[in-house]
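Translate structure to sequence.
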């Protein structure tokens, strides 16, 4: 511990004994009826890059491999997971706890939109209440037996990501980005936050990486040439996936049919998780 330590680990990048003890003390126990083997956080430095899309596709693809996948939608102010899966039934509660809602394919989902009277009702809460609610999605929800719990984070490096990293036993992080140069700088912030919390970055997924013309088959880089490979190499991230702009996939999400979609570009990441 530094002689100048103020005992506020959240504002410090050092990895001392005191910090590790603080992180152990902050971890919350899951519901007694939950048995979650792996927790994977899906993060992005900014909004609109397809983080929820990647979360949904990974849960679907892992389920197709015979594993039980679930989704904790931690983006309380911009929840989109229920829409992607076409889930509209409200979550139910008993004396034991809160039950997630299962998709048509059997994927358990917990999202704030499954608790609101109307899906369009805004969540106008301050940060501490949002963070506390996300923590309750871990402690009060009866997840049952789950092989992979994917946590769809809100963008940025604020209260909720910090709460998740400190309170949940996160095994790894997937960083989602898009090709713009500005986004690459923000990606580095997300990667460095994961490093500060001593959580491995498993992969970088670049969404909207290119568009393949259905007529001529030509590849068009609408957002310009990507440099994400350089960023991944800089931080020693070996798994890099690129998702194209796919109108069919966008229509599937809007129609709540994400479980019918294909995303072969994510196969290397799936193989990494299940090996």
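Result:
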């Amino acid at each position: 511990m530094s002689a100048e330590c103020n005992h506020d680990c959240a504002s410090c990048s050092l990895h001392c004994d005191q910090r590790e003890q603080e992180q152990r003390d902050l971890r919350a126990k899951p519901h007694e009826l939950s048995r979650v083997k792996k927790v994977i956080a899906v993060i992005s430095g900014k909004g609109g890059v397809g983080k929820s899309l990647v979360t949904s596709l990974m849960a679907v693809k892992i389920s197709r491999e015979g594993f039980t996948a679930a989704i904790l939608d931690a983006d309380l102010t911009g929840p989109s997971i229920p829409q992607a899966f076409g889930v509209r039934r409200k979550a139910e509660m008993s004396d034991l706890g809160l039950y997630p809602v299962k998709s048509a394919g059997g994927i358990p989902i917990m999202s704030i939109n499954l608790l609101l009277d109307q899906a369009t009702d805004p969540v106008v809460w301050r940060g501490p209440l949002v963070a506390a609610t996300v923590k309750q999605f871990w402690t009060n929800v009866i997840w049952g037996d789950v092989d992979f719990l994917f946590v769809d984070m809100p963008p940025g490096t604020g209260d909720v990501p910090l709460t998740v990293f400190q309170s949940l036993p996160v095994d790894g992080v997937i960083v989602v980005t898009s090709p713009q140069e500005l986004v690459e700088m923000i990606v580095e912030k997300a990667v460095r936050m994961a490093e500060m919390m001593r959580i491995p970055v498993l992969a970088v997924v670049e969404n909207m990486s290119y568009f393949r013309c259905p007529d001529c088959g030509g590849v068009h880089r609408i957002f310009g040439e990507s440099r994400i490979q350089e960023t991944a190499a800089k931080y020693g991230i070996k798994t890099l996936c690129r998702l194209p702009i796919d109108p069919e996939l966008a229509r599937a999400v809007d129609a709540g049919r994400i479980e019918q979609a294909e995303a072969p570009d994510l196969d290397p990441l799936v193989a990494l998780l299940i090996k």
